[in-house]
Structure formats: structure tokens, C-alpha cells
Fold 6-carboxy-5,6,7,8-tetrahydropterin synthase.
Amino acid sequence: MLLLTKKTRFCCSHTLRKKEWNDQKNFEVFGQCSNLHGHNYILEVTVRGDINDESGMIINLNTVGKIVNEKIVNVIDHTNLNTDIPAFTDRVPTLENMVMVFWDWLEQALPPGTLAKLTLYETENNKIEYTKE
Ligand code: NI
């Protein structure tokens, strides 16, 4: 089994804030991230599979890139996640929640069983990895 990864970049703003908490509680939990700010995110989409003897590939990376652009980048690039993206209206756009939303958006667009792992970098120091196994 082989793992193949497509890396993509996008920019979003967000606020880490729960509506049901007051300003003080939000600041205690999320610190400065409870204020509106932005990140240059990097998303790595890893697909798994066996080599196709005819093409020599698992899946064409251009196909993966088109799906990532269509399902994620074109939807959220240069948006405010909290106010512009319904998935985050009632869900704090932490790295954890973002990567789980992205998984759902991508899994149904990629060939069945190929999505292996998502890695989302918020900064060069902070990243989340998600896999269902
Ligand atoms: Ni942030």
C-alpha cells in the first residue's frame, strides 16, 4: 500500500469563541485567539492505494488537487470561517474541528476508501493530523 500526499495553501480568518461563554471565559480558554485574526494554513491530503499498473499511479495528483480546490480552497479561502462558513456557525474553528469538517467534505468527493490522512498546519509550530484508523 502506498501513501500519496497533495499539499495546498489557503488563508482564513477566525475567532476562537463560544457564543454561550462570556468574553472573560472565552479569553481564559482561548487567550488572544478569542480575538479575530488570520492564518496562512497548509493542508496535506494523503490518499492511499495500490499502484495502477497501467498508469503507474495510485490516483492522479492533479485529480486530487482539483477536488481539494473545489471542495475546500474555493469554499473557504479568504473567508471569515465563523461568519462565512455555515459549518462553523455553531462549531469553534479550531484545528481539530476544521480538519474533521474537511474530512467530510473530501471523503465523499474522492474515490471510495482512498482518503487516508489529513494534516492541517495553522502555523509552522502547530498542526493537527486526522485519520479514521
Ligand atoms: Ni487562530
Q: What stands out?
A: Residues 61-76 form the longest helix (16 residues). The CA atoms of residues 16 and 34 lie 5 Å apart.
